[in-house]
Please model this.
Amino acid sequence: MDIQLKRGVVEICVLAAMLKGETYGYQLIKDIEPHIEISESTLYPILKRLETSGCLTVRSAEHNGRLRKYYSISYEGMEKIKEFLCNWDSIMKTYKFIKGEYEDAKR
Amino acid sequence: MKMRKDEFIKALKRALFRLKKTERDRYLAYYSELIDDKIESGMNEAEAIGEFASISNIKESIMSDALERGMIKPKHNPLTIILLILGSPLWLAFVLALFSLIIALYVVVWAVIISICAIELSFIAVCIGSVVFFIVNMASNSAFALLILGSGLICAAISVLIFVPIIKLIKHMVIYSFELCKSIWQKINIKGRELI
Model:
């Protein structure tokens, strides 16, 4: 998958994984991994970008005697998912057109 | 290669020396949290770290993102280099003083170790000497020879009693002094690379 496209899709996946409720880094990786390839080193910059753009909120809380960061989706994050789903319809139309043209050219 | 958590974090810290300190600390905290969470889910340290990509791959991924977000420390400009050269009489003297202090500390530590060994050896020497004295003077002055033998046996008893604690003490002193040396060297190494 194209890097830019994948990055955008992974960002939405990360936000979608927060729809069930507040979550943390390792849990996010476990939730997303079955659906799209993601590594620890790629997750952190995504979280950072989403935090900077206001799509999620972060809080630190004590867990078993240590600090753990918890991430929650914000209103902006929900809007971003909505926008992605709306855009995907037009992307699918484009995809069908490209595929159709390609199939015709092959014949 | 099986790594412990502290080894992995140290290696990552060294690999990310070009990152701004706040950003580097955030990454270290993030990886530390991930390892703790993996351990909590039933893995051991080596398994948790083994699941990560190699340090060089992690570094590559982090650095490319940091470059985009402007989180890499700027290279020193000529003014900084000039200031470093001009200020060298001050900071170089400080570094030399610090280095001398570390050397002095090591000399003291090893002097203590050698002194402890000398005490133990002197007890053993007294014990051997008293036995020899007893054999030589047993016939001519048996009472005094017995007194010397008795004191020699007391020294032997003391040397046996303090032998194991001394060995343990020396072992710990050697280990800690080397650990201290290693950590100082690593700190100097990181700081040195940060200045480049």
Observations:
- The mean pLDDT of chain A is 90.
- Strands of chain A lie at 23-24, 56-63, 66-73.
